[in-house]
Write a structure and sequence with these properties.
The protein has ten helices and no strands. The protein is mostly helical.
Length: 180
Amino acid sequence: MNEADWDLVRRAQGGDIDAVTTIISRYERYVYQTVYGIVQHPADAEDASQETFLKMYRSLRTLHDIRTFPTWLARIAVRTALDRVEQRDRTPPTPMDVLDSVPGPDEVRRTDLQLDVAQALARLTPEHRAVIVLREVYGFDYTELAQILAIPVGTVRSRLHHARLHLRTAFAVPEEGGLN
């Protein structure tokens, strides 16, 4: 973030709706990609993104250090996405959910590697997906991850280690010949 972004956050905290709208447009993709990495479903990611911005708007005045805005927003997004996954897991699918899961033309054109990555991420727990997405996609360091996820740094390291092991296993190529 730069001084102009900090000014936007200050103005939004003061009730400037135009500043809030600008923040939302600047961070829309960031939030969507973060929550999609966890929920793994476009409609749920869209809902969680909207909910994240609503929560941001309602609690913006509680943000004391505007320099931490991206981390603060990521924390809201991750918590919202994890709540959405938990809620979804408790609710049986409806016929509309099945229709929503039919791949669109853009998804059909994905490369095999992208599909493999998505499938491997889907096999991770939501907590492991969150830590992988925030670290590998957005580059948050361990301390920032601990703040976003509200867990100790040691737990961040452990989750990253286990998530990476699962991903490594998912992409392991069996050796030819093997044991006979």
